[in-house]
Amino acid sequence: MTIYPLSLPQEAALLSSVILLVALVTVPLVWWQTRGRSNAAVAFGVTITAAATVLIFYLTVVAPRQTGVSIGDGLLQVNAPPYARLEISRQEILAAYLVDWQEVAALAPALRTGGAAIADYRTGHFRLHNGADAVIMAVGSRVLVLHLADRFVLLAPDDFDSFLEEFSQRIVRLQPAPIAELAAAALVEPPGMPRIARIVFLASGLLLILLGYLIRFKKMLFLLSGYDERKVKDKDALAHFAGNFVMLIGVAMPIVQFFDFRGIMIFGIALIPFSIYAVYKMNRF
């Protein structure tokens, strides 16, 4: 089988590198900020941070290197880890045509339901503006559209022209795009973030607000990880700062649910240095 990989564009690769660098720097910082506390607190902080770093490394370095589409005789394999893996035979393809979704709004992605979207790079599961589900593996908007019985598959790997030529020879020949039919398709307004994700963000926010309230006003400092009463000089100042910080994050969580993927990513990156500063500040009380 011939493999056509999908490479990260420069902007996406740069953003991924920044995220990974921040994560790698965070691990020793968390260890440094928790040193001198109980072994359990140090182990917990470092383990959670290291696990998050490994996950980020997989998503930003390992997974993109495994993303691609393979062409065999009558068989197409789409691999976009960890989001999607498909095997499509020529018999499953109802239609195959070339389209630019900037010109055909019905096939433009409207909602990411389980994938990655950085700049023009998209992999995974999406909802299109025509309301249909789709698996996308592409950079840019000019894609090969495969119309299957239950979904669309939109592909644009590296060396796109060679991919199209081999696809036509070994899978099915390309057809003219049904522009009139696609243009007449009713466009569906994207419903926003999936309901379960909204519930998670809202519940997390309410929980953090409650914890912040208990710390700030009820002085329940034992809720803070690694809290050691013998090492605290000013309990009231610690309760005031830590409670306000936790409540602030709690208020932000329900708001984040209205952001797109890039907004959520920026929020997550911005939260890391603020959290490190908060830990540093609390250690001084």
Commentary on this structure:
Among the domains are: 90-183, no CATH class; 193-285. Helices cover 48% and strands 22% of the residues. The chain has helices spanning 10-34, 39-66, 160-170, 179-183, 195-218, 235-256, 261-282; strands at 2-5, 68-72, 75-80, 84-89, 95-100, 109-118, 121-128, 133-139, 142-147, 152-156. A 6-stranded mixed β-sheet has the order 5-9-10-8-7-6. A 4-stranded antiparallel β-sheet has the order 1-2-3-4. Helix 1 (10-34) runs antiparallel to helix 2 and helix 6 runs antiparallel to helix 7.
Tell me the β content: 15-25%
Low-confidence segments, given as residue ranges, are none
Major sheet strand order: 5-9-10-8-7-6
Q: What would you call the shape?
A: elongated
What value does the average pLDDT take? 79
List keywords for this structure.
alpha+beta, 6-stranded mixed beta sheet, 4-stranded antiparallel beta sheet, 10 strands, 48% helix, elongated
Topology readout:
Layout lengths: L1 E4 L4 H25 L4 H28 L1 E5 L2 E6 L3 E6 L5 E6 L8 E10 L2 E8 L4 E7 L2 E6 L4 E5 L3 H11 L8 H5 L11 H24 L16 H22 L4 H22 L3
Parallel strand pairs: 8-10
Antiparallel strand pairs: 1-2, 2-3, 3-4, 5-9, 6-7, 7-8, 9-10
Helix pairs in contact: 1-2, 1-7, 5-6, 6-7
